[in-house]
Amino acid sequence: MSDPEQDIRRSWEEGGPERLYILTSGRSVPSDPAPLDMVTLIVTRNGPGSRMPPEQAGILRICDYPLSIAEISAYLHLPVSLVTVLLADLLEGGHVEARAPIPAASLPDVELLEAVMHGLQNL
Q1: How far apart are CA 113 and CA 115, in angstroms?
Q2: Calculated CA dihedral for residues 6, 7, 8, 12, nearest 10 degrees
Q3: Contact (CB, 8 A) for 82 and 24
């Protein structure tokens, strides 16, 4: 038989909906519609403050080098939607910088590669 109080405590610690609601002050989307998606890179601009919530402080601690929102979510074991709301608050406060992901390299010119290959074969 399980103790109801332990079940409530466990659901709170494991990220139950009540905890997530408290962390975002009831918001499900950022107040400022910042262009954030799962591959946006986040970098810390300054360290966590003493009155900062632990989840936001955790984001600032792990983002010394660029991390995507998906990576931050995975490292902190928090849903992407929650991390997006927290990051929007940090962006608004100037604590982090959002960068577009590095674009994939364009495909090389096949004709150029063939010309180089033929030139090397002729050597």
Answers
A1: 5
A2: 100
A3: yes
Give the pLDDT of the chain (123 residues) as one tens digit per residue: 456 666 555 544 555 555 555 565 556 555 566 678 888 899 998 888 788 888 888 899 999 989 999 999 999 888 888 888 888 888 988 899 998 877 766 667 788 889 999 999 998
Domain containing 41: what range? 4-121
Q: In total, how many domains does the chain have?
A: 1
Residue 96: what are its φ and ψ, rounded to 5°?
-130, 165
Phi and psi at residue 30, in whole multiples of 5°? Answer: -60, 145
What is the 8-class DSSP label of residue 109? P
Say whether pTM exceeds 0.85. no
* CATH number of 71's domain: 1.10.10.10
